């Protein structure tokens, strides 16, 4: 940063300005030589005489002190900029000035800074007053919404195109979920959903990449019970009318696998959902439906439990390897392991065949809602909380924010896949998970694998992480290909989590354990975006960071960068 001797420069400029004025006559004509000599004498007397002019000559010692102060200030500024670049990942130019620093800090705090310096809060911050919680719905018919819900701003990005769409939506899951903690990955997957339809239910751009968060209305309590019956039809109808009266475009509803196909394979009960969809149709609202192939319960914010189907649990008791497994052998029953996607262990069917049969049954059962355009989009659940990720941060197994989580690849089917990949590389001894990865709540620098210059970037580390992340992409590719077939002619979407803690470290450890091979020297989201584009699927990016920007201590401790992650996924 260049700092000039402003006082000296002003002093010299002032002398030149006076000399120019005195050397010119009143009519602008240059005076004679003798007159010029008199003028110069007057100028010297004015400058050197105390009180005789606008400027005074300064002692040499004062000038030296000014230079020392400026050098000291420049040194401090240089150290500040170096620290921001090194530890804060700030992209500051070499000759940055204070304006660049202020703009970078404002952007990190969620503000928008235009090139001309105009600064204002982002839409997500300005859409609701400070301290105002999102409007809630309850099951009681006597309790109504007390405030009008503002529209949620969503930004859609497709190949070579950026568009902004406005969409008002309510996400109704059939269960009540309180506002999630800012670091709760699991509950954020339930409630931080983006609306994915423009006004009138039409797409504003062909299958956009969505990056936004649903913040306006919490989920409905007790919409559909475990018998697939509406709990309070009259109260629900009144609340839907309230939503219609405040110009909400539609509602988002989870169709739970554990409710619909609860008792026996391929025996589907859609009764409660059909009655609910008719209510929505009569009020001329739109529907976004989520195919929820995971369980609800066991995480922070889960007040009820919707398990996987009973017949799946029975299979799991005799063959627990159908579930994700960690290094200690603990099973995670939130969803099925991706290792059985092509294994016929579910009463003669593979996991993806089970998902496809469920989606096809839904399409046939609600065909008229698709034909009438009432169902505008179907989001396909691809993992825990419906998100495309490994269940690497289970609270029930001891994970606490900002822990890095653990790899979930120790069931027999995934280990068999790892062995096959290692043998193909000619290194059969690589058919194992890494040993020096810590535990669920460890920090990256506490491990040999995730620390700076750790094993994650070695030959074995790169092999393992490539295999681990490719399984995630293969699972999404396979399930979305069948979803596209089942919902031909309709819009489909997938949900991705916003794992922003440890983003400012070199390894991005929390992302690695979740299946996103996205260290500082590699973009782990390009392959996922390409897979979604292949199937014409929108990306519903779940991000909770805008709800806790004020909690800077947590973000600093975890070296988190929510905005950086959002920008990477968008671009």
From TrEMBL:
GO biological process, one term: polysaccharide catabolic process
Recorded coiled-coil stretches: 532-559
Pfam families: BES1_N, Glyco_hydro_14
SUPFAM superfamilies: (Trans)glycosidases
Domain named BES1/BZR1 plant transcription factor N-terminal: residues: 56-185
Ranges of Low complexity composition bias in the record: 133-148
UniProt keyword Hydrolase present: yes
EC number: 3.2.1.2
UniProt keyword terms in alphabetical order: Carbohydrate metabolism, Coiled coil, Glycosidase, Hydrolase, Polysaccharide degradation
Record's compositionally biased regions (Basic and acidic residues): 58-67
GO MF entries: beta-amylase activity
Catalytic reactions on record: Hydrolysis of (1->4)-alpha-D-glucosidic linkages in polysaccharides so as to remove successive maltose units from the non-reducing ends of the chains
Positions of region (Disordered): 46-69, 118-151
Broad enzyme group: hydrolase
Presence of the UniProt keyword Coiled coil in the record: yes
Protein family (similarity comment): Belongs to the glycosyl hydrolase 14 family.
Name of the protein in question: Beta-amylase
Source species: Gossypium tomentosum (Hawaiian cotton)
């Amino acid at each position: 940063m260049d700092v000039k001797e402003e006082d000296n420069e002003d002093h010299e400029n002032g002398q030149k300005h006076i000399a120019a004025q005195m050397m010119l006559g009143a009519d602008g004509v240059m005076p004679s030589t003798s007159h010029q000599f008199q003028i110069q004498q007057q100028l010297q007397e004015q400058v050197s005489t105390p009180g005789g002019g606008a400027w005074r000559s300064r002692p040499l010692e004062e000038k030296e002190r000014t230079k020392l102060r400026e050098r000291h200030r420049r040194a401090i500024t240089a150290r500040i900029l170096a620290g921001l670049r090194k530890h804060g990942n700030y992209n500051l130019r070499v000759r940055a000035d204070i304006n660049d620093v202020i703009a970078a800090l404002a952007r990190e705090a969620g503000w928008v800074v235009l090139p001309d310096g105009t600064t204002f809060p982002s839409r997500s911050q300005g859409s609701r007053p400070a301290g105002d919680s999102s409007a809630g719905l309850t099951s009681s018919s006597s309790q109504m919404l007390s405030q009008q819900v503002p529209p949620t701003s969503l930004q859609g990005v497709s190949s070579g195109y950026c568009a902004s769409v406005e969409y008002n939506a309510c996400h109704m899951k059939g269960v009540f979920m309180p506002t999630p903690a800012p670091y709760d990955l699991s509950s954020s997957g339930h409630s931080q959903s983006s609306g994915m339809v423009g006004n009138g239910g039409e797409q504003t751009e062909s299958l956009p990449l969505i990056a936004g968060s649903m913040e306006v209305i919490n989920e409905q309590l007790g919409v559909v019970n475990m018998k697939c019956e509406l709990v309070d039809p009259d109260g629900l109808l009144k609340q839907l009318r309230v939503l219609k009266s405040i110009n909400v475009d539609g509602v988002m509803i989870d169709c739970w696998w554990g409710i619909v196909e609860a008792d026996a394979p391929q025996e589907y009960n859609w009764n409660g959902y059909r009655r609910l969809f008719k209510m929505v149709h009569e009020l001329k609202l739109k529907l976004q439906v989520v195919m929820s192939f995971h369980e609800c319960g066991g995480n922070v914010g889960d007040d009820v439990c919707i398990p996987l189907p009973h017949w799946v649990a029975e299979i799991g008791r005799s063959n627990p390897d159908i579930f994700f497994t960690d290094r200690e052998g603990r099973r995670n029953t939130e969803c099925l392991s991706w290792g059985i996607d092509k294994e016929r262990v579910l009463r003669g069917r593979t996991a993806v065949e089970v998902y496809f049969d469920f989606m096809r049954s839904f399409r046939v059962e609600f065909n008229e809602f698709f034909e009438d355009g009432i169902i505008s989009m179907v989001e396909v659940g691809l993992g825990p909380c419906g998100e495309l990720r490994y269940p690497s941060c289970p609270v029930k197994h001891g994970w606490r924010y900002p822990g890095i989580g653990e790899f979930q690849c120790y069931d027999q089917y995934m280990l068999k896949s790892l062995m096959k990949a290692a043998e193909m590389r000619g290194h059969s001894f690589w058919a194992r998970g890494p040993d020096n990865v810590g535990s669920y709540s460890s920090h990256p620098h506490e491990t040999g694998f995730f620390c700076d210059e750790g094993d994650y970037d070695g030959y074995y580390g790169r092999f393992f992480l490539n295999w681990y992340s490719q399984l995630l992409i293969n699972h999404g590719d396979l399930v979305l290909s069948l979803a596209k077939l089942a919902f031909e002619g309709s819009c489909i979407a997938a949900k991705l989590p916003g794992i922003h803690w440890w983003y400012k470290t070199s390894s991005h450890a929390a992302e690695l354990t979740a299946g996103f091979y996205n260290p500082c020297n590699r973009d782990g989201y390009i392959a996922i975006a390409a897979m979604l584009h292949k199937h014409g699927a929108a990306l519903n990016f779940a991000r909770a960071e805008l709800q806790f920007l004020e909690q800077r201590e947590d973000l600093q401790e975890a070296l988190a960068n929510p905005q950086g992650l959002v920008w990477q996924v968008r671009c």
